[in-house]
Specification:
With 513 residues, this protein is an alpha/beta fold. It folds into three domains: 182 residues, 3-Layer(aba) Sandwich (Rossmann fold), CATH 3.40.50; 194 residues, HUPs (Rossmann fold, 3-Layer(aba) Sandwich), CATH 3.40.50; 102 residues, GMP Synthetase, Chain A, domain 3, CATH 3.30.300. The chain contains 16 helices and 20 strands. A nine-stranded mixed beta sheet has the order 2-1-3-4-11-10-9-6-7, with helices on both faces. Helix 15 packs antiparallel against helix 16. The two termini are 43 Å apart. 38% of the residues are buried. Bound molecules: xanthosine-5'-monophosphate. Xanthosine-5'-monophosphate (XMP) binds next to loops.
């Protein structure tokens, strides 16, 4: 049993789950339909009605199943509070101005949330508001604009908040959510590293005895997924790592290290020539991504067939390190409306063809990245394996701008190696979320020795991010940038100029292609 977060489409919904888990409470996100359906046979520990872009005036859904059990703790956030206001006989009014962005709130009639000062800053994003508080509720919080910012039922464990306690700008958001969970819902902590690990092991136990294939990249997600699955599956788990020729030297080294130092059965499939052959002469980024994705599938399928033919091993499951944000994203009401546009086609083994007849095993599907890292540590994996920078599936293929060949890949490999070494030497590797180099398809003039040269340009990209959805540029010390630049110009043949990319995401994406 957990807290159910009913997603009305707010862009912040997953942060509610994340914060509740950080507070030590199990919670999961679900659609409105799913929650209403599940209420018929199951019961959450508490219910959270999230924010959302709609207006209660257009919403005709019957939410009464949420409200029949008067012991069920319920928190309404933003739109969720307006549903409470309307359902229980208060009055929601269309906002003339609304409140967007930072606001200050204070307790009404001495109401004080433990840990919060009398006035504190919150994040608002609403136009409609609860103008008349329902008869069985009282107003507990008010914004500096005089609007109702919080309500609480007089006898039932129910609270509404007009602001978003889950976003960072709400300074005491964690205290507010903790107040609901502990004081109003009367719950006790039930989510920790052990319960999280056990939940994942339980999922893997369901396929014990089956042959499981893992598309292994060596990144933290596939490493943690494989390590915990191995505990249950043992020699029935086979990890395939595809060397597509678009890797950095440190990636292959990392895979070899894992092969030697973990109990995982990792097979390296050398497919360099196939990938580079298929990419020859192609310069369009989307086409390159598609070719790399398709080649990956072809190589994988050939390998799977050879296992059946040569070893008589037929795989039943494909193990993937899918994480919760992807699962939530696929539930998103916006996604269903087709409103989210494809910025880049991500290379993802989720696209293996149906004819391969593999079912998916996704033991990390309820976890966020930071939880996966914590689990990696709990499983005894080395810190540097768990905190590796992300590396995209298409690898250097999308870091050589334009057509890719062996020489251009080598330039990025060499410059990336220098960047990596310098970050490690200056102990700054962990101070940036992702760092890499990009080969630009332009030539510029320079002087080397006493002669004029006309050579290519390397761009350095270093960003800070939480999940890759947004990013800021890492402020690297000038001396480190200067050292990297000097080494690349001196040590990488054909490069005379190094530039530093100063673009946050948005508007730039993290990768250049
Ligand atoms: P963008 O460029 O979309 O990247 O801002 C966000 C994060 O995703 C990584 N990335 C990928 N990862 N397959 C992956 O596994 C891909 O096709 C892919 N494209 C981008 C990127 O490195 C960054 O961390």
């Amino acid at each position: 049993m957990s807290v159910w977060i009913v997603d009305f489409g707010s862009q912040y919904t997953q942060l509610i789950t994340r914060t509740m888990r950080e507070l030590g409470f199990a919670s999961e996100v679900m659609t409105v339909e799913d929650a209403l359906g599940r209420m018929k046979t199951a019961k959450p520990k508490a219910l959270v009605l999230s924010g959302g872009p709609q207006s209660v005036f257009e919403d005709k859904t019957d939410y009464s199943p949420f409200f029949t059990d008067n012991k069920l703790p319920i928190l309404g956030v933003c739109y969720g509070m307006q549903i409470l206001g309307q359902f229980f006989g208060g009055k929601v009014e269309k906002g003339v101005q609304g409140e967007y962005g930072p606001a200050s709130i204070h307790g009404v009639d001495g109401y004080q949330i433990p840990g919060c000062p009398a006035n504190h800053d919150v994040w608002m994003s609403h136009s409609d508001h609860v103008a008349i508080v329902p008869k069985d509720f009282k107003k507990i919080l008010e914004s500096h604009n005089g609007l109702t910012a919080g309500i609480k039922h007089n006898s039932r464990p129910m609270m509404g908040l007009q602001f978003h306690p889950e976003v960072q700008h709400t300074v005491h958001g964690k205290d507010v959510l903790g107040h609901f969970l502990r004081d109003i819902a009367g719950m006790e902590e039930d989510w920790n590293g052990q319960t999280m690990l056990q939940g994942c092991l339980d999922l893997v136990s369901q396929v014990k005895g089956k042959k499981v294939l893992c598309a292994f990249s060596g990144g933290v997600d596939s490493l943690v997924a494989a390590t915990l699955s191995h505990k249950i599956l043992g020699s029935d788990l086979f990890c395939f790592f595809v060397d597509n020729g678009l890797l950095r030297p440190q990636d292959l080294h990392h895979i070899r290290l894992l092969r030697e130092n973990t109990p995982l059965h990792i097979e390296i499939i050398d497919a360099k020539d196939i990938f580079l052959g298929n990419l020859a002469g192609v310069s369009d980024p989307e086409q390159k991504r598609k070719i790399i994705g398709k080649t990956f599938i072809d190589v994988f399928e050939t390998k799977v067939k050879s296992y059946a033919q040569d070893h008589g091993i037929k795989f039943d499951y494909l193990l993937q390190g899918t994480l919760y944000p992807d699962v939530i994203e696929s539930l998103s009401p916006h996604k269903k409306d087709g409103k989210s546009s494809t910025i880049k086609s991500h290379h993802n083994v989720g696209g293996l063809p149906e004819r391969m007849n593999l079912q998916l095993l996704e033991p990390l599907r309820f976890l966020f990245k930071d939880e996966v890292r914590a689990m990696g540590a709990e499983l005894g994996l080395a810190r540097e394996w768990v905190w590796r920078h992300p590396f995209p599936g298409p690898g250097i293929g999308v870091r050589v701008l334009g057509a890719v060949d062996e020489k251009s890949v080598q330039k990025v490999q060499l410059s990336d190696q220098i960047l990596f070494e310098e970050l490690k030497n200056s102990r700054l590797y962990d101070s940036t979320w992702q760092a890499f180099t990009v080969l630009l398809p332009v030539k510029t003039v320079g002087v080397k020795g006493d002669g004029r040269v006309y050579e290519e340009v390397i761009a350095l990209r270093m960003v800070n991010s939480q999940d890759g959805m947004t990013a800021t540029v890492t402020e690297m010390p000038w001396s480190v940038l200067a050292k990297i630049s000097s080494r690349i110009c001196n040590e990488v043949p054909g490069i005379t100029r190094v530039v530093y990319d100063l673009t946050p995401k948005p508007p730039g994406t993290i990768e250049w292609e």
